[in-house]
Amino acid sequence: MTREAIVLAGGLGTRLRSLLPDRPKVLAPIGEHPFLYYLLHYLAKQQIHRVILSLGYQHELVLQWLEKDCTDNFPFEIRPVVESYPLGTGGAIQLAMTHASANFVFILNGDTYFPIALMEMEQFHQHMQKPITLAACYLQDTGRYGRLEIDETQHVVKSFQEKQARKAGWINAGIYCINTNWWKSQSFPEIFSFEKEVLEPLLNHSTSSSIAVFQANQFFIDMGVPEDYIRAQTTIPAYAQIR
Questions:
Q1: What is the pLDDT of residues 47-68, one digit of tens each?
Q2: Could you give the CA distance from residue 241 to residue 215 in angstroms, rounded to a whole number?
Q3: Do the Cβ atoms of 200 and 120 come closer than 8 Å?
């Protein structure tokens, strides 16, 4: 079975602009390597056969790194797909999906490190028989992200809650497993939000939840803000065991 992953790496990275004025987030230096290096090494351990790299902002730098500086021979094809203009998270997935051929496609954010077992998530996804499975992470402080309300018996999302007080709970960790045929059968606009125009409607318009939840207690870091980017300098290389 062919396994494919889409890495969303086209964002503007405005919250990190003060620290990274000259490069996209996916090339943010972490220790001795750009973040993308760690993400590709993680995917190499997950039996992925093809990585579709969704690019936009400063994509030229990513293409240059892939050609000149990425000397590791990863065990998969890396297919860059470039947005001509910002398409939103949904539009970026839509464009990348035109290059996907596997039955299931993993979606990952290019600024988040959450090294779960993707094969276990795929098996869970097949068992649940929902169009989308999202990976959930348990945090002691969910204030920055908002919380997931989960039906622990049925293993599905009940609701996406807005950012609230700093409490422990489950968050959407930004990794998805999506049925490719289901996605391609939908009618989406060119520019749209995956969260607002796919995930939320699936809950609001379904008699039973169409989003399964793969819950994982795993190391998690989102480099979207400066303080977590600084923390990533030591935590990601240590966890990945890469110098």
A1: 999 999 999 989 999 999 999 8
A2: 24
A3: no
How far from 228 is each of 14, 49, 108, 121, 222, CA to CA, in Å? Answer: 14, 30, 18, 26, 7
CB 41 within 8 A of CB 66: no
> Do residues 157 and 209 make contact, with C-beta atoms less than 8 angstroms apart?
yes
Q: How long a stretch of residues is the chain?
A: 243
Tokens of 95: 């464009």
Which of 243, 234, 229, 235 shows the shortest CA–CA distance to 20?
Answer: 229
Q: pTM higher than 0.90 for the full model?
A: yes
181, containing H or E segment: helix 180-185
Domains of the chain: 4-240 (3.90.550.10)
